[in-house]
Specification:
The structure holds two protein chains of two kinds. Chain A is of the alpha+beta class. Chain A contains 28 helices and 25 strands. Chain A folds into five domains: about 70 residues, no CATH class; about 190 residues, no CATH class; about 220 residues, no CATH class; about 170 residues, no CATH class; about 200 residues, no CATH class. About 0% of the residues of chain A have low confidence. In chain B, a hairpin with a 5-residue loop joins β2 and β3. The N terminus of chain B is likely disordered. Chain B has a three-stranded antiparallel beta sheet. Chain B starts with 10 loop residues before the first helix and ends with a helix. Classes of the chains: A alpha+beta, B alpha+beta.
Chain lengths: ~900, ~110
């Protein structure tokens, strides 16, 4: 109650400010007049009396101040006055305010953006209830131990009845073109097909409408419903609630929007997102020709997650799934199904699913952790910059502070004023930082994601922003009020004597400022050095020897899933059926090559199973039989398949033997080409061409007709495995990768080649279209992301450092103007003055460079695993970093040096 | 100017309240009254008087009205409020206890 009364009084006095002020004046005047009267009565002359009264009464302003104090207005009063003063100061010296605020904004913005990005990718737990109960089900290859994340639908279906575990599946997210209005232009959106229990098992609730229900899966093609993601709903429909019931066309089907997912739920793989979820029952409508994948154990196109029942441990759930798997395997063996061997060759790997699928995290975790470190360095740099500038400014204002202290401003009062200024700057920097983060966030994702592999919500994380703002504000405050505290301590009289004689300043402060500037140089050197190493690595990775010619090479993956290329479902194909399919597939590849080569702008075309950097080839264990005895290779053998003339068309080197040609047909002698690694492992020290071998357990002998140099299939970081290439005609597969050598830029021919493929066979769906250089880049995403961002941050660091150095050096020159004037008046030459300034800078840069190189030596350890073909002590990077630091020094010294040189002694002596 | 005679902390409040017991007075009058009654032993400086008056008013122990002074000028008159009277009694009792104690100490052989 009392508090309320007081508040009311304070507000009232605030409102009746002017009235109260004049009343106070009148009251004090009344007292003064009485005192004068009394003095006159005592016999003093009126003038004399007034003076005596004034002396006796003391400083009226101070009394008034103390009276006002008791009104409880002082705090408000002083704050608004401080604010006015601070604003006036900023207006008088806008350069300083702009630089400090910009520096803070960049430091805060970059940190918030990077940490938000990292937060989204390194997400600890999916935003669903009880994420600890979730699990991820993967397959594990018994022979290699590899755990591919993809799963086949029949296998998933066979495990669904497992006790105590509820499973759900999702297709791989893909981009498709849809139209929302009849006749409207198509938009590319990210689509993910999910099973009926996807949302209910995850425990996700709709924020609008309903999610896909339990019966949606039952009849294929009968449930054209769609659920929008929150993010897509906001972006595309501005969060309009009337979106329910609208529809869009995808391929030949129309889907109706029935609901919107909850805010914050992006996908089950942090770092990726879906725009629209569709029932998996509509897979045929989403990707025509794909419905067969529901029956094939060999088609691994879904990812499987699950939730264990309440009270069931992860181990119990794993055991239950293993049991279900064993039962499924046993029943397939019993039926004599050809798929039994698929199950036998692998087992299940059940992993905790708390943080979802790690597809993106695996790729980006290391670079993101490093980038967080880099961002912190940038923040450190920004803080050092602000600290240096604040100190310079404080020194500049020593006189002002001393005068104010002498006039009776208390130390607390001074500190408060400096605090207000610092806080104002920090606040402006913080607001600008939010803007930078908002702009930088999407830009960072754009730079970071190579071929759109990374899709995250870069919505600001306010907690992170708060931390960054707090860090910057602390710097501004500590370095802002430190000098005020020192000034408050100073003996006002002594300092007053020094006003106007600021030729030199305290050694301690100079040392702190130089230290800060040197720190900035050091941090820049670390960043530039790291960026140099990373860029060099990227160059090395891109230019690494590949064993084939990668220029102007386009790759298109298609799948021959039409009825012509498939066996009748449910029965074992007869030998005749096999042969007929082989003929049809090999005929298809012949027609494809001929038709595509006839396209203007195409030089050569060849069909392989996978091409380069796709990694979809089958493996064939690590044993072969030569002359009746087993030979073992130390790595899994990969099986390549390619049409006639592929060695020549792909520009591979053929040290021995011949290329495939038209005589390698179905039914003729089985031939293979080995890569150099395979040849060395199969026939060590022997001539491979002309030899024959069998697969272990196989009956058909294969003759080696050629040996090619190793070609890079998995990226320059991976040692090429042993490859056995077979003629496509003898070993056809429904997965075809068309490799097209073009005359000009390969991307330009995409459409022409697509239509050529469609002309050959309408049922072929073209899936992954990429140039080989893009394919290579996809194998070095981490390096590209880290390299690009570190370079960007390095540039930012240089900019900040340059600003800081110019500020600090420029200030120190301005401060010494009088000294320079005196020295020149005494006969010093301009050259000497300039040399002095340059020497000061040189010392600073040299110290920063040495510390920076030492720091780089330590920092480089964290990026060592991402370097390629570069030593961490690479001399070129050292030279580059040093050159940059020196250039930085020269440039930032040039400006103040010129100013020092242009000092006119006559003016300088009258300085102040 | 009299010799320095810093009033004991809190004593000024007591003196002001006591001076106002007999009716409203303005600032100058309060200072004169304290000086006269104390035989010029206690001199209240304007610098401490007015902040004290404003503080007491803010605390609700005295209230002020504008009226005409003896020489017909507009002046601010202070007077005791109900809580102010209670406060005066409490402060007086406290002071008597305190001064009696001090006297005892001083008169001890």
């Amino acid at each position: 109650m009392r508090f309320l009364l007081e508040l009311r009084q304070r507000i009232r006095s605030l409102l009746r400010r002017g009235e109260a002020e004049s009343a106070l004046d009148e009251e004090l005047q009344f007292h003064f007049d009485h005192l004068v009267e009394e003095k006159v009565a005592e016999g003093l002359a009126p003038g004399e009396a007034k003076r005596a009264a004034r002396v006796e009464l003391g400083f009226p302003a101070q009394i008034a101040e103390e009276c006002r104090d008791s009104w409880g207005l002082r705090a408000v009063d002083e704050f608004s006055r401080d604010l006015r003063l601070a604003l006036r100061g900023m207006a008088a010296n806008p350069g300083f305010a702009v630089i400090v605020a910009t520096t803070l904004a960049l430091g805060i913005g970059v940190n918030t953006a990077i940490f938000s990005l990292a937060d989204a990718v390194l997400l600890e737990a999916l935003p669903v209830p009880s994420p600890d109960e979730l699990l991820v089900v993967k397959r594990q290859d018994k022979a290699t131990g590899r755990r591919p994340g993809n799963f086949s639908y029949p296998l998933y279906n066979g495990l669904r009845e497992t006790e105590n575990v509820r499973l759900f599946a999702a297709g791989y997210p893909g981009e498709s073109e849809v139209t929302f209005e009849a006749g409207g232009s198509p938009e590319r959106i990210r689509i993910q097909s999910v099973t009926d229990e996807f949302f209910s098992i995850l425990g996700v609730q709709p924020q609008l409408g309903r999610l896909l229900g339990v019966d949606e899966e039952v009849v294929p093609g009968a449930y054209p419903y769609a659920v929008l993601s929150d993010r897509f709903w906001r972006r595309r429909f501005a969060a309009a609630p009337n979106v329910l019931g609208r529809s869009f066309q995808l391929n030949d089907s129309v889907f109706t929007i029935i609901g919107v997912g909850p805010h914050g739920f992006e996908s089950i793989a942090p770092g990726t997102t879906a725009d629209v979820w569709l029932p998996i029952a509509m897979q045929e409508q989403i990707a025509p020709g794909s419905s067969r994948m529901f029956e094939q154990y060999g088609a691994n196109w879904i990812t499987v997650m699950g939730r264990r029942a309440n009270g069931v441990s992860h181990e119990e759930a794993t055991a239950a799934l293993d049991l279900a798997y064993a039962r499924l395997e046993a029943s397939l063996i019993e039926q004599g199904s050809p798929d039994a061997r698929r199950l036998t060759s692998q087992t299940l790997s059940v992993e905790p699913g708390r943080s979802g699928l790690d597809v993106v995290r695996r790729q980006y975790a290391t670079p993101l952790r490093i980038l967080m470190g880099v961002a912190l360095l940038v923040l450190l740099l920004a803080c050092a910059n602000v600290a240096g500038l604040m100190l310079a400014r404080a020194a500049q204002r020593t006189d002002e502070t001393v005068v104010r202290a002498a006039l009776g401003a208390s130390r607390g009062r001074l500190v408060r004023q400096w605090l207000t200024e610092s806080l104002l700057l920090a606040a402006i920097g913080g607001v600008a930082g939010v803007l930078v983060a908002l702009i930088a966030g999407p830009a960072l994702v754009a730079v970071a994601s190579i071929d759109a592999s990374l899709v995250v919500d870069t919505g600001l994380d306010w907690r992170l922003l708060a931390i960054a703002v707090a860090a910057s504000a602390c710097t501004a405050i500590v370095f802002g009020i430190g000098p005020a505290l020192a000034a408050g301590r100073a003996d006002a009289r002594g300092a007053l004597n020094g006003v106007g004689r600021r030729s030199t300043e305290s050694k301690q402060r100079t040392r702190i400022r130089s230290g800060l500037a040197a720190t900035q140089v050091a941090v820049s050197v670390v960043l530039v050095f790291s960026a140099g190493l990373l860029l060099q690595s990227i160059g090395n990775l891109r230019n690494a020897e590949r064993g084939f010619s990668s220029s102007n090479l386009l790759s298109l993956r298609t799948e021959a899933l039409g009825a012509d290329y498939a066996f009748a479902h449910g029965t074992q194909p007869t030998e005749a059926e096999r042969r007929a399919r082989q003929e049809r597939l090999s005929h298809l590849t012949d027609r494809l090559v001929r038709r595509v080569e006839a396209t203007p702008g195409v030089r050569r075309a060849v069909v392989a199973q996978c091409g380069f950097y796709a990694g979809c080839e089958a493996t064939a264990g690590n044993q072969i039989i030569v002359d009746g005895e087993i030979r073992e290779t130390d790595r899994q053998i990969r099986l390549g398949k390619a049409t006639a003339g592929f060695v020549d068309a792909l520009g591979m080197r053929l040290p021995a033997g011949r290329d495939f040609n038209e005589t390698d047909r179905p039914g003729t002698r089985r031939v293979v080409i080995l890569n150099a690694t395979a040849a060395g492992m199969f026939f060590p020290g022997e001539r491979a061409v002309g030899r024959t071998f069998l697969w272990k357990g196989g009956k058909t002998a294969m003759e080696v007709v050629g040996v090619v140099a190793d070609a890079d299939h998995d990226g320059p970081r991976t040692e090429t495995p042993p490859f056995v290439y077979s003629p496509f005609a003898q070993q056809p597969s429904p997965v075809l990768t068309l490799m097209v050598r073009t005359d000009g830029p390969p991307g330009a021919l995409t459409q022409a080649v697509r239509s050529a493929i469609a002309e050959v066979d309408q049922s072929l769906n073209v899936r992954a279209v990429t140039t080989i250089s893009a394919g290579l880049d996809s194998t070095i995403r981490k390096e590209l992301m880290l390299g690009r961002l570190t370079t960007a941050f390095g540039a930012l660091a240089l900019l900040l450092t340059a600003v800081g150095l110019v500020g600090v050096l420029g200030y120190s020159v301005a401060r010494r103007t009088k000294e320079f004037g005196v020295r020149m008046a005494l006969g010093a030459r301009r050259g000497q003055i300039v040399a002095g300034v340059v020497r000061q800078t040189t010392a600073l840069i040299a110290a920063g460079l040495v510390v920076g190189l030492l720091g780089a030596w330590v920092a480089v350890r964290s990026i060592e695993s991402l370097l390629f073909g570069v030593e961490p002590t690479d001399s070129r990077a050292i030279v580059a970093a040093s050159a940059v630091a020196i250039l930085l020094g020269v440039l930032s010294a040039a400006f103040p040096a010129r100013r020092a040189a242009s000092v006119d002694p006559a003016v300088a002596l009258r300085w102040e | 100017m009299g010799e320095s005679n810093d009033l004991l902390q809190g004593t000024l409040d007591l003196l002001i309240l006591r001076t106002l017991q007999r009716g409203a007075r303005h600032g100058w009058d309060i200072a004169q009254r304290i000086r006269d009654v104390s035989d010029e032993a206690l001199l209240v400086q304007q610098g401490s008087l007015y902040p004290a008056l404003h503080r007491l008013e803010h605390q609700g122990w005295i209230e002020s009205t504008w009226g005409a002074s003896e020489n017909k000028r507009r002046a601010k008159f202070y007077s005791l409020t109900g809580p102010g009277r209670k406060r005066l009694r409490a402060e007086t009792a406290k002071w008597e206890r305190l001064s009696a104690g001090v006297n005892l100490v001083l008169s001890e052989g």
